[in-house]
C-alpha cells in the first residue's frame, strides 16, 4: 500500500509538471512568426506571413478601452478579414510590460498608453512612428503635440486629461479670480478647509501644484523653437521658481497646503462638504456628484501674476516597432480608431475630453463638466515625456515636501533641487 | 503486561487492514498503469511540441534541454524501483525552473547593461533607429497610393498633384506612365502592372513597410514610403546604416557613429545614439556600485541601516516573544490558552495589510496614534528620518513577536522542568536557573530560527515598501533613496521605479546582497554548532 500512495503522490506532482510544460509551450507557440521579424530577413518574414495569410492584430488595452475597442475590432474584421485580439491589461502595467515583451516577440502590435511614456518607449526602441498624415489636423493641437517626441508622432491620441478647480456651488457661488480670493472665499464659507489638494507627506505632488508654479513664470523646461520642450534648459531654477518656493513655504506655514491630506482624504473631505474648493482631475467628479455635491469646474486660480497652466496628459494608441502587421495596424488606428464615432465612444466610457476635434467640440457642448475641464485643458501644457522625468518627479516632489514642511530655507532647497535635477538629466 | 497485549492486538488489526488494501491495489494496478501512461504521454507530447517550436526558433539549447528533461522523466517513471528518483524528479524539475534558472539569469544580467535604452538586440536597435529617424519632408503633399506588382516586385503608383500617374519601385525612381486608369481619385489600373488587392497587401505587409521608392535620381530628395498602403508620404532618412563598416551616418551633419562596444552607436566625442542594445559589460556594474560616488555613499548608508534594521528587528521580537512565552508558560497564570490565542493574532493577518493599516495610523495629523494616543500632537512618525526608522522597527515588532512567541513557547515546553528544579535544589535563584540552564538549552533550538529570521528581515521588502516606501527621501543623496530604504527596496527602486531602469546594476546589487546574507548565515550556523555541543 505504502508504495502505491507514494506512486500516487508522485503522479499528482507529475500532473503539475505536465501542466507547466504545457503552459510553457503555449506561450512559445506564438513565437514562430514573431521571431522572424528581423529587419534583415524581409523575404523570410514575408513567407512566414504568407503562412498565416489573413493575419491578426493584438491590441493591449485596459478594461474601459477594451470594451469600446471590441466593437471597432468587429467592424475591422468584417471589412478586412483581419482578426483583432484585444488583451486586457492593467493600464499602469502596460508601459513596462510593453518594454520587456516587444523585444522577445511576444508583444502586441498596438497598445494603449499615456504620452509621457514616450521617452522610455523611444529610448528602448520598442515604438514605431505613426503617420497621421492630413488626419493630424483633425485632432486637438495639444494632443498631437503631446504624442510628438523628437519630431516624430508616435501615437494616435484619443483623450486629453488635466486637472481643474472643482467648486462646491453651495459653499461658493462664484468662481474665484485668483488664489488669494479663493482662500478668502474659502474662509468666508466657514468650512474646515478653505481649499483642498491631495499631497503626500514625503513626496508632495508636483503634478497638482504645477499650475501654481507656472503662475510664477517657472515652467519646468524651456521651450524649443518648434514649441516642444527643450530638456537641456531647466527653466524652473530661475527667479520665478524661487518666488514659487517662497510661496510654497508661506502656504505650508499657513496650513493651506497640508502634506498630511492625501488624495483619498481630500476627496472624502470635499465630498462631505468640508471645503468649497478642490484642485483635482475629472476622476473625482463622479464621486462628488454621487455624494450630492453640486459641482462646477473652474479655471485654476493663479497664485503669481501669470496664467496657471496645468499639465495635460494625453492618452493614445501606439505601434510596436517589432510589429509584423504594420499595414493592418496603422489602418486600424488611423481609419478606425481615429474616427469621430470611436473617439466619442471612448469619451463616453472614459469621461475624458476626446482628442479628435470633432468629438471634442461635441463633448464640450454636451457636458458642462467636460467643458470646464476642456477649457482649462486648452491652457494646459503637455507633461514632459523625456525618460529622465522619473528622476525629476522624485527630486521635485521630495524638495517641495521639504519646503512645505519648512525644513530649511525655501530658496536654498529649491536651488539644490534644480542643481540635482540638472545633473540627473545630463 | 496489559500494554503489550494491546499493542499486539493493534498490530494484528493493522496486518489485516494492510492485506485488504494490498488486494485492492492489485486490482487497481492496471488503472494506475493506464493513468501513468496517459500522464507521461501528455507530458511527452507537450515537451515534443515545445521542443519543435523552440528548434523552429533556433533556440537549440533550451529545446535540447526540454527533450532531455522529458526523456529523463519518462525513463525515471518507467524504471522498476528507483524510488528516490521518482520522489525527487518533480521537485528537482521545479527547483531548476523556478530557482536555479532565476538565480543564473540574474547572475547573467548583472554582467550586462540591460536597462532603459539597452533593452534588446543590436538588430532591433538598428531597426528602431531607422524607423525613428524617417523624417517626413515638411509641407510635402500626401500621395494617394495604389500598390502594384510587376514580375513579383512591388511598386508604388501614385497620383501627382497635376493629376498624372507616377510609378516607381525600390530600384526605379518615380516616373510618369501613360494609360493608367483613375477612378474617384484612386488608380485602378496601371499598364504592365497588376494592382494588388487588400488581402494581397496584407500578405506582403512586411515587404511593403520597408519599401522606399526614391522620388527621383537625387537620393537627397527623399523617398516615398507608406504605412497603411493607401497614402504615401515623402521621407528623408536622418541616418544611414552601413553594414560593411557597421556604422551609422547622420546625413544632415555627416557625423559617423560607430559601435563602441558598449552597446550603442557613439560619435568620436562620445555622444550616444539611442536606443542601444544589450551587451556584456563584465564587472562594470559591480565596479560602478563600489566606485561611483553617487551610488557608493547611499549604498554604504543603506547597507548599514539594513544591518541595523535586521539585527534590531530580530533582537526586539525575540526579547518580547521570549518574555511573553515565559510569562504564559508559567502554570500559575490563569486562562493562558486564551491569552496565547490573542498573542498570535498579529501573525494571522497578512503582513502587507498590517503595514498599510499602520501607515494610516501613523499619519501625522489624522492618524490614530497622534490624534488619540498623543492627544493631537503632530509627531512626524513617517516623515522624520529617525522617527521613520523607529516606526519601521515598532511595526516590525508588532508583526514579528508572535512568531518568536510561538517558537519560544514550543522550545520552552520541550525543556524538562526537572532541570530547573535540580538547579533550584542546588541553590540557584530563579533568574540564575533560567540564564544558565534554560536559556542555553533554548538557544540550541532557537538559534537557527534567529538566523533565518535575520535573513528574512534583511530582505523584508513588504514592510518597507508598504509602510514608508523607503521614505522620507534623502534629498541630499544623488539617487532616489530614502532613510528607511533597505538594500532590497533600494534594488527595487534602481530596477523599476522611475523611468530609468537599470536591471544590470540592480542584479549586481542583488548578487552583493546574496553574498552578504550567505556569509552571515554560514558564519552564524557554524557558531550554533558550538551550542549543540551542550547536548
Helix-strand layout with pairing:
The complex is a heterodimer of chains A (426) and B (535).
Chain A: H1 2-28, H2 31-35, H3 42-51, E1 56-61, H4 63-80, E2 83-88, H5 91-101, E3 110-114, H6 118-123, E4 127-128, H7 141-146, E5 148-149, E6 152-153, E7 155-162, E8 164-168, H8 179-189, E9 195-196, H9 206-215, E10 221-223, E11 229-234, H10 239-254, H11 263-271, E12 277-280, H12 285-290, E13 295-298, E14 311-320, H13 326-337, H14 340-350, E15 353-354, H15 357-366, H16 368-379, E16 381-382, H17 389-405, H18 410-425
Parallel strand pairs in A: 1-2, 1-3, 9-12, 14-16
Antiparallel strand pairs in A: 3-14, 4-14, 5-6, 7-14, 7-15, 8-12, 8-13, 10-11
Helix pairs in contact in A: 4-14, 10-17, 10-18, 14-15, 15-16, 17-18
Chain B: H1 2-56, H2 60-78, H3 83-109, H4 122-132, E1 134-136, E2 143-150, E3 153-159, E4 165-169, E5 175-176, E6 181-183, E7 186-189, E8 194-195, H5 198-203, H6 205-210, E9 213-214, E10 223-226, E11 231-237, E12 239-242, E13 247-250, E14 256-259, E15 265-266, E16 272-273, H7 284-291, H8 293-329, H9 336-348, H10 351-361, H11 368-373, H12 385-414, H13 417-425, H14 430-458, H15 461-467, H16 487-496, H17 503-532
Antiparallel strand pairs in B: 1-11, 2-3, 2-8, 2-11, 3-4, 4-5, 6-7, 9-10, 10-11, 12-13, 13-14, 14-15, 15-16
Head-to-tail CA distance between termini of chain B: 34 Å
The multimeric state of the shown protein is heterodimer
Strand fraction band of chain B?
A: 5-15%
Radius of gyration of chain A: 25 Å
Largest sheet of chain A: 8 strands, mixed
Q: Total strand count of chain A, please?
A: 16
- Shape type of chain B: elongated
Category by helix and strand content of chain A:
alpha/beta
DSSP summary: helix tally of chain B: 17
Mean pLDDT of chain B: 85
Spatial extent as radius of gyration of chain B = 36 Å
Backbone shape of chain A? globular
Main beta sheet of chain B = 9 strands, antiparallel
Largest interface: A-B, 99 and 95 residues
Unreliable stretches of chain A, pLDDT < 50, 5 or more residues?
1-53
Structural class by sheet pairing and helices of chain B: alpha+beta
Strand content of chain A: 15-25%
How far is it from the N-terminal to the C-terminal residue of chain A, by CA?
72 Å
Helix content of chain A: 40-55%
Report the uncertain regions of chain B: 1-6
Amino acid at each position: 500500500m505504502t508504495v502505491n500512495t507514494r506512486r500516487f503522490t508522485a503522479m499528482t506532482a507529475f500532473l503539475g509538471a505536465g501542466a507547466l510544460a504545457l503552459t510553457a509551450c503555449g506561450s512559445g507557440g506564438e513565437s514562430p512568426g514573431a521571431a522572424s521579424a528581423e529587419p534583415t530577413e524581409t523575404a523570410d518574414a514575408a513567407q512566414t506571413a504568407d503562412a498565416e495569410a489573413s493575419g491578426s492584430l493584438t491590441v493591449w488595452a485596459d478594461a474601459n478601452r477594451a470594451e469600446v475597442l471590441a466593437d471597432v475590432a468587429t467592424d475591422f474584421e468584417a471589412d478586412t478579414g483581419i482578426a483583432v485580439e484585444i488583451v486586457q491589461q492593467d493600464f499602469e502595467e502596460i508601459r513596462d510590460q510593453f518594454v520587456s515583451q516587444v523585444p522577445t516577440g511576444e508583444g502586441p502590435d498596438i497598445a494603449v498608453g499615456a504620452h509621457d511614456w514616450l521617452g522610455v518607449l523611444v529610448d528602448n526602441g520598442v515604438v514605431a512612428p505613426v503617420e497621421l498624415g492630413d488626419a493630424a489636423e483633425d485632432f486637438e493641437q495639444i494632443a498631437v503635440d503631446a504624442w510628438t517626441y523628437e519630431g516624430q508622432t508616435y501615437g494616435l491620441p484619443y483623450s486629453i486629461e488635466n486637472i481643474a478647480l472643482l467648486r462646491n456651488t453651495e459653499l461658493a457661488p462664484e468662481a474665484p479670480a485668483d488664489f488669494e480670493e479663493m482662500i478668502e472665499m474659502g474662509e468666508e464659507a466657514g468650512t474646515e478647509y478653505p481649499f483642498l489638494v491631495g499631497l503626500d507627506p514625503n513626496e508632495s505632488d508636483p503634478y497638482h501644484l504645477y499650475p501654481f508654479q507656472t503662475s510664477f513664470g517657472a515652467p519646468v523646461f524651456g521651450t524649443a523653437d518648434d514649441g516642444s520642450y527643450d530638456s537641456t534648459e531647466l527653466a524652473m531654477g530661475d527667479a520665478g521658481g524661487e518666488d514659487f518656493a517662497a510661496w510654497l513655504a508661506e502656504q505650508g506655514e499657513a496650513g493651506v497646503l497640508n502634506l498630511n491630506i492625501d488624495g483619498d482624504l481630500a476627496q472624502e473631505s470635499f465630498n462631505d462638504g468640508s471645503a468649497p474648493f478642490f484642485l483635482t482631475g475629472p476622476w473625482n467628479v463622479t464621486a462628488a456628484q454621487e455624494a450630492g455635491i453640486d459641482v462646477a469646474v473652474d479655471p485654476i486660480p493663479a497664485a503669481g501674476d501669470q496664467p496657471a497652466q496645468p499639465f495635460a496628459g494625453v492618452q493614445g494608441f501606439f505601434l510596436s516597432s517589432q510589429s509584423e502587421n504594420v499595414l493592418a495596424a496603422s489602418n486600424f488606428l488611423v481609419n478606425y480608431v481615429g474616427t469621430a464615432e470611436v473617439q466619442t465612444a471612448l469619451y463616453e466610457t472614459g469621461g475624458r475630453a476626446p482628442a479628435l476635434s470633432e468629438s471634442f467640440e461635441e463633448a464640450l457642448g454636451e457636458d458642462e463638466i467636460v467643458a470646464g475641464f476642456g477649457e482649462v485643458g486648452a491652457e494646459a501644457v503637455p507633461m514632459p515625456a523625456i525618460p529622465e522625468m522619473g528622476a525629476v518627479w522624485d527630486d521635485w516632489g521630495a524638495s517641495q515636501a521639504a519646503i512645505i514642511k519648512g525644513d530649511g530655507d525655501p530658496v536654498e532647497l529649491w536651488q539644490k533641487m534644480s542643481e540635482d535635477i540638472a545633473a540627473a538629466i545630463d | 503486561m496489559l500494554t503489550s497485549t494491546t499493542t499486539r492486538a493493534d498490530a494484528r488489526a493493522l496486518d489485516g487492514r494492510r492485506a485488504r488494501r494490498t488486494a485492492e491495489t492489485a486490482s487497481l494496478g492496471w488503472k494506475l498503469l493506464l493513468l501513468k501512461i496517459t500522464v507521461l504521454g501528455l507530458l511527452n507530447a507537450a515537451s515534443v511540441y515545445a521542443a519543435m517550436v523552440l528548434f523552429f526558433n533556433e533556440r537549440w539549447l533550451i529545446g535540447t534541454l526540454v527533450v532531455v528533461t522529458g526523456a529523463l522523466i519518462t525513463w525515471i517513471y518507467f524504471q522498476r524501483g528507483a524510488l528516490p528518483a521518482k520522489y525527487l524528479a518533480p521537485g528537482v524539475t521545479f527547483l531548476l525552473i523556478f530557482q536555479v534558472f532565476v538565480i543564473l539569469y540574474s547572475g547573467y544580467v548583472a554582467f550586462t547593461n540591460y536597462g532603459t535604452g539597452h533593452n534588446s538586440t543590436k538588430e532591433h536597435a538598428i531597426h528602431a533607429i531607422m524607423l525613428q529617424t524617417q523624417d517626413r519632408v515638411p509641407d510635402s503633399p500626401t500621395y494617394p497610393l495604389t500598390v502594384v506588382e510587376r514580375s513579383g516586385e512591388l511598386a508604388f503608383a501614385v497620383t501627382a498633384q497635376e493629376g498624372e500617374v507616377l510609378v516607381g519601385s525600390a530600384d526605379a525612381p518615380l516616373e510618369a506612365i501613360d494609360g493608367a486608369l483613375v477612378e474617384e481619385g484612386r488608380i485602378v489600373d496601371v499598364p504592365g502592372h497588376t494592382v494588388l488587392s487588400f488581402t494581397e497587401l496584407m500578405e506582403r505587409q512586411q515587404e511593403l513597410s520597408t519599401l522606399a521608392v526614391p522620388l527621383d535620381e537625387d537620393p537627397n530628395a527623399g523617398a516615398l514610403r507608406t504605412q497603411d498602403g493607401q497614402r504615401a508620404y515623402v521621407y528623408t532618412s536622418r541616418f544611414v546604416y552601413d553594414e560593411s563598416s557597421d556604422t551609422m551616418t547622420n546625413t544632415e551633419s555627416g557625423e559617423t557613429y560607430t559601435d563602441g562596444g558598449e552597446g550603442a552607436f557613439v560619435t568620436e566625442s562620445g555622444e550616444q545614439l539611442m536606443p542601444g542594445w544589450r551587451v556584456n559589460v563584465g564587472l562594470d556594474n559591480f565596479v560602478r556600485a563600489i566606485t561611483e560616488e553617487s551610488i557608493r555613499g547611499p549604498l554604504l548608508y543603506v547597507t548599514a541601516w539594513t544591518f541595523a534594521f535586521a539585527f534590531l528587528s530580530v533582537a526586539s521580537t525575540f526579547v518580547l516573544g521570549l518574555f511573553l512565552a515565559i510569562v504564559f508558560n508559567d502554570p500559575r497564570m490563569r486562562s493562558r490558552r486564551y491569552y496565547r490565542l490573542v498573542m498570535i493574532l498579529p501573525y494571522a493577518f497578512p503582513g502587507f495589510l498590517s503595514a498599510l493599516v499602520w501607515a494610516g495610523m501613523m499619519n501625522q495629523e489624522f492618524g490614530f496614534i497622534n490624534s488619540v494616543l498623543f492627544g493631537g500632537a503632530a509627531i512626524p512618525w513617517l516623515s522624520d528620518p529617525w522617527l521613520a526608522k523607529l516606526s519601521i522597527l515598532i511595526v516590525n515588532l508588532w508583526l514579528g513577536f508572535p512568531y518568536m512567541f510561538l517558537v519560544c513557547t514550543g522550545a520552552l515546553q520541550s525543556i524538562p522542568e526537572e532541570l530547573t528544579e535540580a538547579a533550584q535544589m542546588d541553590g540557584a535563584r530563579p533568574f540564575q536557573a533560567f540564564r544558565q540552564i534554560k536559556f542555553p538549552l533554548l538557544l540550541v533550538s532557537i538559534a537557527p530560527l534567529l538566523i533565518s529570521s535575520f535573513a528574512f528581515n534583511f530582505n523584508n521588502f513588504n514592510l518597507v515598501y508598504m509602510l514608508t516606501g523607503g521614505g522620507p527621501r534623502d534629498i541630499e543623496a544623488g539617487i532616489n533613496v530614502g532613510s528607511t530604504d533597505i538594500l532590497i527596496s533600494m534594488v527595487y527602486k534602481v530596477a523599476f521605479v522611475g523611468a530609468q531602469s537599470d536591471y544590470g546594476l540592480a542584479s549586481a546589487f542583488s548578487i552583493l546582497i546574496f553574498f552578504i546574507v550567505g556569509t552571515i548565515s554560514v558564519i552564524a550556523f557554524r557558531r550554533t554548532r558550538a551550542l549543540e555541543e551542550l547536548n
